[in-house]
UniProtKB/TrEMBL annotation:
UniProt name for this protein: TonB-dependent receptor
Localization, UniProt: Cell outer membrane
Topology in membrane: Multi-pass membrane protein
Gene3D superfamilies linked to this entry: TonB-dependent receptor, beta-barrel domain (2.40.170.20), TonB-dependent receptor, plug domain (2.170.130.10)
Entry keywords, A to Z: Cell outer membrane, Ion transport, Iron, Iron transport, Membrane, Receptor, Signal, TonB box, Transmembrane, Transmembrane beta strand, Transport
Signal peptide start and end residues: 1-23
Pfam family, one: Plug
Family: Belongs to the TonB-dependent receptor family.
SUPFAM superfamilies attached to this UniProt entry: Porins
Chief subcellular location: membrane
Length: 803
């Protein structure tokens, strides 16, 4: 898409979007009334009506979440057009890896994210923290670069969860849910106040567990999940101008073996020489030339077929495996998984001080802390009845703290924010391989980042209708990598760091990046019911060190350099252009938002696996992050809510998410497809078309006082995604239908639900991977497609009482 073409598109779209708004402006003004359906968001660090803020933002309130049966941020994402969730990577498809792709900005590695997460505006280091929020007041999804206000890792957007604040009155609620697949949930809250409500608190608790919806070879279930969560919030108001909020959260996820399988390009037989019974069946339907030019190799082309091989995994904790697991050192014993599955513990705390100097000046001080550990043990070959099993472990901890101060101001026609923020984050990981021929537990060195930002915004109302805004952030990112607990001596043969002795925990390398991140916006308010806006912004996604290759063998470093791996990847950059419209029609019964965007994505950071030979001649794999290319991203988004009458409400949303690769390099894909030219292809992992529609019936129950009912049905659609940049293999389109029926009588409410009504088995994620056998015969190139599987049909009943 050329700049001229895009400018013409913006101009024509602005005219088209303005037509209904102009018509609305010409109509006589309706009397001012309170808008009971208004939603307030904090997309620009201050409270604004979602229909007047010139930012593309989607928000779901607590009532909307409850009515749709959505219990987590990932649930919001799954039901939102223009967003994909990928939970398949490195041989695992579980809750340890849930990567959000917004507007097609899809990184391939969990530690390189393009969407940042916030709780009450305070940054969190891991998206799993957000899945632990119990009964939030609101979830906001901000689309497009948010770097000017939110800084680090808001390259494609940001997600902010707002907690419910205590009212100061004594009360609470209790909810119990029972469903098939042994699903059980107990959730409750209690709140109260002291000193006439000047000090208020709210406590919440959650216990949830369910069996998986797939069967393993031994009759056990796959996809078992359980979570526990506790939160506490205290709000103090010493004076009418001063508010202090303190929030804390603890969460624990303890999951069983995930539901996943592979579609293979090769048969796996009982014997290493290719003879014997076929244990896993190839579903190859095409072939490509070998990189060496010596022949061809099979692959799976087109839309993925239904998988043939069983969904299964080794589940046996043998004495030999327990002995090997006893040597793990990265995490304390209470944080280490002792079964096949996932164990994750997380803690979060933050505080907010809000002081109102006057009607013109308001000060906010924020500080937050996050700590998370997870330990995941999987059967890497993913086939439980095979004579060959490969237990594989991933351990990781992350910790960060942040602080921010900002001053909101308003003087006449000028308003805005000035402030500064600081974030310090650290993480460290370990990998354990416990196959008979591959025994290792390797702890990487610690990685650290420090980010300082100074930001501002200024919005000037030129006329009552026309406003212009300019925002910016000067950001300094420093990344560093440290030696592990084992001292290391780098020889002159080391290809990545200066030769010398590096003690345990010694600094291996450090790099600082400085960027100015601007955003400019122009908005025109035709009336209180219609506005259009234009915006231009830039974003930066900071780099990270490839510390995993620094202390590796000569063979690994040579293979890494051949794959183009540097000590650190350059920062990603994006320039985004956007036009949008928002408003209300039909006396406010119809609400709409629409936007078009075009973004240039430079220096994409992606993860690549590269093979190397061990000292014994076996082919092994290593991974690193590197800049793989550039792409143009463009699309259209629309949302509307229409209250047909007092009985029926319809809400719908749709997104077109387009992309075009300009340059791209990936040694593994080149070896697989015998080409290095990916120009004009679409980004992988992105649904080009997506939509959702919900219809709600409801109202008062005649003959009963203080009683209401509702019936809601949702349809969520996401088109299939390419598994990689070659655009050879894609997943099928996915259609999911959910329904919920409920009623409330005074303090009591009850509902029944059915999710995935038609028991759709369409895969939820797919990524290229490897075929595993006892000799690792198929590691020289990608040889399988790993699948993340959806949850099958579930139903249940929920009872709730308010006290």
């Amino acid at each position: 898409m050329t700049g001229t073409t895009f400018s013409a598109l913006l101009s024509s779209t602005a005219l088209a979007l303005a037509l209904p708004a102009t018509a609305a402006a010409a109509a006589p003004a309706a009397p001012a009334t309170q808008d009971d359906n208004a939603i307030t968001v904090t997309a620009r660090k201050q409270k604004e009506d979602i229909l007047t803020v010139p930012v593309t933002v989607q928000a779901m309130t607590s009532a909307q979440l409850e009515q749709r049966g959505i219990a987590s941020v990932t649930g919001v994402v799954a039901a939102s057009p223009g967003i994909n969730v990928n939970n398949a990577s490195s041989g695992r498809s579980d809750r340890s890896f849930q990567q959000i792709s917004l507007r097609g900005f899809t990184p391939q590695f969990a530690t390189v994210t393009t969407v940042a997460m916030f709780i009450d505006g305070v940054a969190v280091s891991s998206p799993s923290q957000l899945t632990s929020i119990t009964d939030p007041a609101q979830i906001e999804v901000l689309k497009g670069p948010q770097s000017a206000f939110f800084g680090r890792n808001t390259f494609a957007g940001a997600i902010n969860v707002t907690n419910k604040e205590p009212s100061g009155r004594w009360g609470g609620d209790l909810m119990v849910e029972l469903g098939n697949h042994a699903a059980r949930k107990v959730q409750g809250s209690i709140e109260g106040g002291f000193l006439n409500g000047d000090i208020a608190f709210r406590l919440t608790g959650l216990y949830w567990t369910k069996d998986g919806t797939y069967r393993n070879y031994d009759g056990s279930t796959l996809g078992d999940q359980s979570s526990r969560n506790f939160t506490a919030m205290v709000v103090a108001k010493p004076t009418s101008d001063l508010t202090i909020k303190l929030f804390g959260m603890m969460g624990r996820d303890d999951d069983g073996i995930s539901a996943q399988t592979r579609i293979l390009a090769y048969n796996v037989t009982a014997n290493a020489d290719g003879t014997g019974a076929v244990q896993q069946v190839s579903q190859a339907n095409c072939s490509f030339a070998n990189a060496s030019g010596t022949g061809t190799h099979p692959w799976i082309c087109g839309t993925l077929p239904a998988y043939t091989n069983a969904v299964g995994s080794n589940a046996v904790m043998t004495d030999t495996l327990r002995t090997r697991l006893a040597n793990r050192t990265l995490l304390k014993s209470s944080d280490l998984v002792d079964h096949f599955g996932l164990l994750r513990n997380s803690q979060h705390a933050h505080g907010v001080i809000d002081y109102k100097f006057s009607q013109q000046l308001n000060l906010q001080l924020l500080a937050g802390y996050n700590h998370e550990t997870y330990s995941s043990l999987i059967d890497l070959d993913g086939f439980g009845t095979s004579s060959f099993n490969w237990p594989y472990e991933v351990d990781r901890w992350s910790r960060d703290w942040s602080t921010e101060g900002r001053l909101n101001y308003k003087f006449g026609n000028l308003r805005g924010v000035v402030g500064a923020s600081y974030l310090s984050a650290q993480t460290q990981g370990a990998l354990g391989s416990y196959a008979d021929t591959f025994l290792s537990y390797s702890v990487s060195g610690r990685s650290a980042t420090k980010t300082f930002g100074a930001f501002f915004s200024a919005t000037y109302d030129v006329t009552p209708q026309l406003s212009g805004s300019f925002e910016g952030r000067y950001q300094i990112d420093t990344i560093a990598a440290y030696q592990s607990a084992t001292p290391y001596t780098a020889t002159s043969a080391n290809l990545y760091i200066t030769p010398g002795y590096y003690a345990a925990g010694a600094l291996l390398g450090e790099k600082t990046f400085r960027n100015f991140l601007p955003r400019a916006m122009l908005s025109y308010q035709f009336s209180k019911a219609a506005m259009v806006y234009l915006s231009w912004s830039k974003g930066v996604n900071p780099s990270s060190f490839n510390s995993g290759v620094v202390t590796q063998s000569q063979a690994v470093q040579t293979a890494a350099q051949a794959a183009g791996v540097k000590l650190y990847a350059d920062p990603e950059k994006v320039t985004n252009y956007e036009i949008g419209a928002k408003g209300k029609l039909l006396d406010g019964r119809l609400r709409y938002t629409a936007s078009l965007y075009y973004a240039q994505w430079k220096n994409q950071i992606n993860s690549t696996n590269f093979p190397y030979y061990s000292a014994t001649g076996s082919i092994l794999l290593a991974s690193a992050n590197l800049n793989t290319g550039n792409a143009d991203m463009y699309g259209a988004e629309a949302n509307l809510t229409y209250k047909v009458n007092d009985l029926i409400t319809v809400d719908a949303a749709a997104a077109y998410t387009g992309s075009r690769i300009i340059t791209y390099a990936n040694a593994l894909l080149t070896a697989l497809y015998a080409t290095s030219n990916f120009y004009g292809k679409e980004m992988g992992g992105v649904s080009k078309y997506s939509a959702n529609m919900g219809v709600t019936f409801g109202g008062d129950i005649k003959g009963l006082d203080d009683a209401t009912w509702f019936l809601r049905t949702d349809w969520n659609f996401k088109s299939g995604v390419w598994i990689d940049a070659a655009n050879v293999t894609r997943t099928p389109d996915q259609h999911l239908f959910n329904t919920r029926l409920g009623m409330t009588k005074g303090r009591y409410s009850a509902s029944v639900y059915v999710n995935n009504i038609f028991n759709n088995h369409t895969v939820s994620a797919a990524t290229s991977n490897y075929t595993y056998n006892s000799t690792s015969s198929y590691f020289s190139q990608l040889s399988a497609i790993q699948l993340g599987l959806p949850e099958l049909r579930s139903f249940g009943v929920q009872l709730k009482v308010k006290m």
